[in-house]
């Protein structure tokens, strides 16, 4: 140990655990996370586990009452204000030492049939389930806005785009309904992730359960978990619960990002689809005419950040051994929390942006009337009125449109029956059996929409039925959310009731 470099390292890092670098990089950040996010679930686990030990007669009520009194002395606000000094490896040992000093050695029995492994995983899951519920609540808030916007714009005619090119007439309500449906699937994936997350690891101990006759079901119920993770090894080693949440969040960000891109394009002066409410735009420092849609721009950027955080979670899981990965999860959890927190805020922001914007309905309708987006219906009409195959009808209409574009007449107002018949003579050798009125009707975007009345189409009556279904789905999704929140609240109330009994009998 004679080199100067080695001596410098020893002087900097110290000779006892923890070294300075390890403390700065790992232990202190983990401690700071735990004191803010883990102290409440940690206390809830202490109490639930203690109640179970009493009910299974592993600890008597007198001893338990002393431990409960000590637990109640933990000042959560004071804990959250503490600074890490390295005296304890982590918050768990710091709290445990406090309880033993306050209640005596009997408090050490609180750790019977329990490990930091099963306890740590339970804390992570309790944290994550709360954030998932918050995110779903925000998603449902946005979903309600989208259903209202669907109804508001059920007759707002616009051009739909495929391959970024004008495709067919539809309505803005039809688009918002499509957003509603992908958001619904995102919510359902978050629900599935919640079901996976909300399972109890308690009783798995380090890896193999315990020789003590504990009751895992009791702790599960007291902590608001809906199931037990059966295999103890899986309970402390399986990380796919957070991976499933990350995947659901990542896909939700991708889905919403695609619509955000549309909104940015439609908000340009060239498109002129809508004007954002003043609180959601920012003026240029030099160009007086500019109104920058910063709210949507930041939404798009933050959605990319959500994707990145979720991908970090999945990457950190990759190639980790199938064993206790609590230490890895200390580093991984904040990325999951950040992703959920940002996505939650984005849902609220985008809802406000959409509900306050002013749509230029007249401009959208005129653009649809002037464009060639309606000519699919013209081809369909030729099939109905002239008995043509669709391919022949498509050939005639396509030739007519190309002729107009070639001659700088790229508007439907120039598409007359004479022009159409010119191409029909070339393709069919005869004129079409069609009147001017039939032609004008076939080129009307409102007629186009009206006859698209199949399931999933933009027809007004069809969309009204769709909206009614989406509102019923909203009620069901809100009821699911309320039920899950009630389960968690009931679990806390159950702990309080059982503690009162213990304290009364243990005096």
Automatic annotation (TrEMBL):
Fumarate lyase N-terminal domain span: 104-308
Metabolic or biological pathway, per its Swiss-Prot or TrEMBL entry: Amino-acid biosynthesis; L-arginine biosynthesis; L-arginine from L-ornithine and carbamoyl phosphate: step 3/3
Domain of life from the UniProt record: Bacteria
Residue ranges constituting the Argininosuccinate lyase C-terminal domain according to the UniProt record: 372-450
Alphabetical keyword list: Amino-acid biosynthesis, Arginine biosynthesis, Cytoplasm, Lyase
Family in the record: Belongs to the lyase 1 family. Argininosuccinate lyase subfamily.
Protein name: Argininosuccinate lyase
Native species: Compostibacillus humi
Lineage: Bacteria, Bacillati, Bacillota, Bacilli, Bacillales
